[in-house]
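Follow-up to my earlier ticket, as requested here are the two runs.
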Amino acid sequence: MVPLLMTPGPTEVPERIRTALAHPIVHHRTPEFTEILDDCGSRLKKVFKTDNTVYTMSGSGTTAMCAALENTVSKGDKVLSIVFGKFSERFRDIALSVGSDLETLQFDWGQAPDIGKIEEALSDDVKAVTMVHNETSTGVRADVEAVGKLVKDTNALFICDTISSMAGDNVETDNWNIDLCIAGSQKCFSMPPGIGFLSVSDKAWPVIENKEQNYLTDLNKYRSKYPQTPFTAPISLIYGLQEALSIIEEEGLDKRVQRHRKNAEFTRTAVKEMGLELYPASEDICSETLTSIRSDRAEDIRSSLKEKGILVAGAQAPEKGKMFRIGHMGSVGRPEIERTLEALKEVLEI
């Protein structure tokens, strides 16, 4: 039996997308495939809510995270990294890897970043600010819009990871003043892993143009080749992406976001009624695409759910064994959530 994938990425892939993925391989430099790339790029802009070009990169969302920092941060540049979980830690580590003068603004796991403290830390010499919108490791959602307003009128670039929120929660790239907005295929797009997405603002381009670049992630190459890609595109995944974007359009982006919101509320209410404790410090900062639950029985619960054919995610260090996470993103709907919650209730009663 194939288990029901209720992890916060990768997620269940609908049959329509699986069928598209099976399209015969074509040559990636043909006019026909270029049209598909162009179509996907135009539709991605609508999902990102941006007038900027959205580039597709072979690799996971982390590839796009690396590209964002490698293209904009030179050795010795000051980077303010807002950390409140494992994936915002990853942003911090990437910033270190490119030789930045790093300032880490650390918040406790389960807490949302404090906007006042961010404002205090945003000095004139900061060249880039990194932030995660939806911290998948904790189930906490940050106020990206407020941080974007702070960064807008500075010389700093605002670099934001929306990997587990884009196409599931409301993300307004332009209105929130995000200069480099990052997403990935394997979460709310209901795609397999393998594509990173990255939009780039007008504010960011002069920095990119005047910096020595890494060969593989050089965004100047991506811009000059667009809508084509500078290197071989993941052909099968692009066919799947085109179908995924059709599904999003058919549902309507606003309705899709509302569905995720209602499913999140439904899940949180159910787990609280079972006597479980949500991991985030308060419900107003809870993710709309996954629910994280605090429990000393986390690994036993996960094992028991797996025996019932349902996979949920555990916690990452330092919370390993103390929390588990239920994904309700992408194509996952009320039937899958209800099945998961019913199984969870049975496990808790054992």
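Run two:
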Amino acid sequence: GVDKKVDTIYLGGGTPSLFDPADLSRILEAVRSRFACAGAAAPSSGARAASTSGARAAGTEVTLEADPETITPEKAAEWLAAGINRVSLGAQSFHDAELKAAGRMHRRDDIFSSIERLRSTGFANISLDLIAGLPHQTASSWQDSLEEALRLRPEHISIYLFEVDEGSRLGRELLAAGTRYSAAAVPTDDAMADSYEFACERLNRAGYDHYEISNWALPGFRSRHNLKYWRRDPYLGFGAGAHSFDGRWRWANAHDPAAYAAAIEQGRLPVEQLEEVTARQALDEELFLGLRQLEGIDLARIQAQYGAQFNAEIGARFEELRAQGLVECSGSRVRLAPARLAVSNEVFVALLE
């Protein structure tokens, strides 16, 4: 209801920038009519207390995911007028051969022109996604992509490692050790790790705050929305396939758009999956999601909150990880060792097995 305070709205999944801007505006108006949303958002603070307050004077962060080739000056102006104040741009790479192999529709020039359009319209908060490990990517081309991104100076940068869907053409070809569909041109795991480590060093020198394994921000521009997930804050998802969490329950809407629409029209909740989160699951999430943040976790707080669930075995695992140099401890605070972020999955597997 209107007493529920909202400090972040995220329009994402698929390519919402293809929507008619008038429809996006209607969606946002519907949210504002049912929830207490502050005005236009200022850049988010890096401090935990500031970035999690639902009633911040800074206002609501409203993000739109967009593909570069879908952005026009007219759309950008209508987005801004509708209250969208942050755009997350799926750049992926600045090399056309890599973009083509990844099946992307845009090219390098589209990234530059789209950001120019957003800036000229008045957008002061832009996030750029890059992917390390795309087919045909080399150490040199990866470094070029990073430098191109830094030339554009987005307020936020996300870097993800290339993941192959085993059911895709490329995935099946890789499993069969074939060469079609650019399978032979996919970098090795070691090469991807090297690319990630290079990015960590380069973005740090460029003044970006590395606050989560895959995310960097200029001071004051951390993604408020993503922090909700990593801190297990409640969130509501609307639309086909959207997920929600209220602190105790997780649920997912029907994935089929027709089934979702039919449920709404019939006055039924379109929920397809519903799960109560157990205390042990919640603890595992605290550890896994908390350690993704470079500030780490406060073990004393977690132990006090979860009591018997946080047993001696978990404490022993942390001590073993510390001895291996995978985590660092300062008092009750534990964080991933900055030099070992590329192998963070080893930590998560050890904790959650």
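The only thing I checked on run two: The chain has 14 helices and 15 strands. Let me know what else you need.
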